[in-house]
Every structure is written in structure tokens, then in C-alpha cells.
Specification:
Elements (H helix, E strand, L loop, with lengths): L2 H14 L1 H17 L1 H43 L4
Helix pairs in contact: 2-3
Amino acid sequence: MDFTALYSGIIEYFQNNQYIAIALVCILLLMLFRKLKLFFTLLLFSAVIAGLLFLISNISDLGIEKKSVMVHERSIDLGLPK
């Protein structure tokens, strides 16, 4: 999972749908002033989910890289062409 592509997709969506972006900001500001506990609970939940997704993505990228190195080494050992 490439987070740069994910972020650019989100930014592009909100740039194309400005009314939705304005409504979302208004709802978040309203929650910040009216329901502070709910706002920070959702903020913490979002941060934990984003952290877990980043960790999973990072671990899977390392596994994919290790697998490609192992396959390449194995093909060299067997004398197979690239």
C-alpha cells in the first residue's frame, strides 16, 4: 500500500468535491466545540487505525522485497536466466 498515492487520491477527491470538504470541516469544527470528548475519541481512533495501516504496509513491503531477493538468488543458484 503506497500512502503517497492514498494521500494524493484523498486530496484530489476533496479538491473536486469542495462542498463535501467544507461540510466535513464544518462538522469537525462543530464536534470540536460541542462534543469535545467524541471529537478526541474519533481523532485517537483514526490515529490508531492510520498507525496500524502504516505498520502493516511497511511490514508487507519488507516481506515482498525479501521474497524478490530470495527468488533472484534461487534463480542464480539454479542457473536460470533472468
